[in-house]
Amino acid sequence: MMSQLVNTSNGQTLANFVEVASTFAQRNKGLLGRETLDSNRTLWIHKCPSIHTFFMKFRLDVIFVDRNLKVTSVHRDVGPWRLIFYGGWGAKDVFEFTAGALSNREVQPGDQLNVID
Q1: Cα–Cα distance for residue pair 34/105, rounded to 1 Å
Q2: Model pTM above 0.85
Q3: SS3 of residue 26 by DSSP
């Protein structure tokens, strides 16, 4: 099934395919071991208010959201061996993209996101 991630605050599509990591094993692995991620894809990691990029092979753009998918923080071009310990007040989940995927897309704290099937 193909899902889209849309910023409903401005109508922009942020990703045309949303991969979900909801189990402990999926959340623990995240994007580790991958060489890259297509710029139209995102990994939605549930129950993840902080991230690390230890052992990552590529840079990331990251959007943290609360339980209602309201953006709590945005981090662009996060390099390997970094730690984002605080995703913003109320952060519950995170969307990870390859670095640069958000460069032509407007997203900021307070924006409302929606995953559409």
Answers
A1: 24
A2: yes
A3: helix
